[in-house]
Amino acid sequence: MPDRILVTGGAGYIGAQCCKALAEAGREPVTYDNLSRGHRDMVKWGPLVEADLRDRETLTRALIAHRIEAVIHFAALAYVGESTAYPQIYYDNNLGGMSALLGAMEKAHVGQIVFSSSCATYGTPEHLPIAETCAQAPINPYGRTKLVCEWMLRDAQAAKGPRFAALRYFNAAGADPDGVIGERHLPETHLIPLALMAASGMGPALRVFGTDYPTPDGTCIRDYIHVHDLARAHLLALEHLAKGGESVALNLGTGRGVSVREVIASVERVTGREVPVTFEPRRTGDPAELTADPHRAEAVLGFSAQFRDLDRIVAHAAPWFGHRILTSAA
Q: Structural domain of residue 205, as residue ranges?
């Protein structure tokens, strides 16, 4: 694995966890973040370059000054609803950032990049579980920006640019098992934190959108992958590229779907508190089920999720949302 890695968006939820994993592996993560949505106090394992990713000159100088050998690219706007309301901001930020990054990498002669992509590139899947061969037909601007970024990587490589690993996450969840860093989004939109906040009184009742989906209990089903597992997958992807591996696009998930009602039940088991709920109509654009076929990541990277038990994922997240966990789930 390379020794010095630039981590764009390294002050965010997944980026900071990845920086921690890199440091524990004896590598030096250099965080590049404008802190518009990241947190300065989450940069604990290496230097911070505070700048916008679209500032190509500063970015190029950072790559050269820190003798960067590879990049892990997390920096992006990532709210589906916001992307629908303000698509031009998403295209400017997410595509502009990737364009500047590829240009800076070319000038600094950095030849490897791991990209934080998304299962949102698939849109409403044609079949389940979702394999990498499924058609990519995103249904919102956020998903489209991730797909176009994948195209940009392919086109750059065809023009003798960097080799890449595009990692298509399913639903990131949980928190650092050591309790050092956790999930902090403003606003918070993820189901598990919202359910934990509702149970602790830190937030309003949990809004459940749709109870009439064609699923066993009528609520949406998603594949929740622990943030610690996501970080580990990025290190394996770096190793793959460092060994001369070909560019790849891989799903990161557990292969197990969990419904909204099952998440609520898990939160109540782990915390011992009731989750107040309001039931509302379906939201436009929410597929009934998104579950990964994770087999290609296992074949190419040797990766499989270690944290598969939902109660354990919830228990790691719970202290960040007002809960003291006394169960063995943690």
A: 191-222+256-321
